[in-house]
Task: structure prediction
Amino acid sequence: MQAESIALAAQESRLAAVASHRLAVLRAMAAQSMRQTPRVAEECLTKGYAKPIPEDTWRHMQGKSWHASLNCPRREELALLRVPYLGYDDRPHSGQMIVARSVSAEVLRVFAEIYRSGQFRIKTMQLIDEFGGDDAKSMAANNTSAFNCRAITGGVQLSEHSFGKAIDINPIQNPFVTRMITMPTAGSQFSNSTQRAVSHPGLIQEGDVVTKAFARIGWKWGGTWGSTKDYQHFSQSGR
Ligand SMILES: [Zn+2]
Result:
């Protein structure tokens, strides 16, 4: 009995030592992360970052924004961005966006510039896969997005979004407008030049921080197109 108690006591003290060692390690890790977090969080918050497409994201993209039947970019040619933006609630947010890896650094620079200016608001920035890869649904939700391997609106050619080199921003305040239609329909109140002269924190205007930031990286704005205007659309090629 006594021998058992001694053995138990020894075991308890070993366990206590292990526990206290683990606790010390955890405390050290916590202290380190406390020291690092504000700086890292601040950096991520204001600059954003790019990373390879994670496995779960890639799986979620299949049949939505990515199709084996179309000539879509390879996974390694794409990057998942974390992007800082000011919301319509005037608060900082972190959105997700997929673009071509080759343009990820310049796209991050554009959104960091827009964010730091404090002059423009973005409604929401989720991957289009959250809307089943359906551009109409994403536009109706006023969602800002980039990569979507699909045909152009009303056509068969692959859109510039298919290559991750085009970005749509706040589609309701910045609709796609032809003589016949406005998409999304909720964007009708922001479709003509008189309506677009009225300032709104998420409406893109010539010479504002958004058009200037994209112009700096050589991207073109669909708001300068001829008869058809795509006010939400910026692309590297100008298409
Ligand atoms: Zn577009």
In short: The chain has one domain: 45-235. Confidence is low (pLDDT under 50) at residues 28-34. The first strand starts at residue 49 and ends at 52.
